[in-house]
Amino acid sequence: MRRELAVVSTLAALGFAGTAWATEFGTPGEAKAMLEKAVAAVKADKAKALGMFAKGEGGFKDRDLYPYCGGPDGNFTAHPTLLGKSLKDLKDKTGKPLGAEVYAAASEGAIAEVAYMWPRPGQTEPVAKVAYVTKVGDQVCAVGYYK
After folding, report:
1. Is 91 a domain residue?
2. What is the count of structural domains for the chain?
3. What is the mean pLDDT of residues 56-75?
4. C-alpha separations of 130 from 5, 7, 47 in Å
5. What is the CATH number of the domain that holds 70?
6. Residue 10 — pLDDT band, cuts 50, 70, 90?
């Protein structure tokens, strides 16, 4: 009986630990939902939406999830820290042309995936990350999640 109780207790503890980990970082489903919400916001009022994305307002910052966009000139039009810098020329931490791939993958009315390596917030070691990418008018927008 004690052995069974110990097993149940261990499994319960592992389950709670998994739940804590899951709530610390955004999930693929949450990233895709945020991108869909961002698309709707850009369609409704592009200037207002881009401002909210950059500031993380209106539910557009959730743990490590946030939308970012680039304009037709290739520069970030919305990002928490890279506003005005070149998205199109951005490389991931292994030298992969991340920005060029984001622009190449973006298509109006469709969501594509771009995989790359990037450090988690507050860390320096790059880890696998995937961005959901789409095009909305003249904006290329994405939301990335860590694997």
Report:
1. yes
2. 1
3. 97
4. 40, 36, 26
5. 3.30.450.20
6. very low
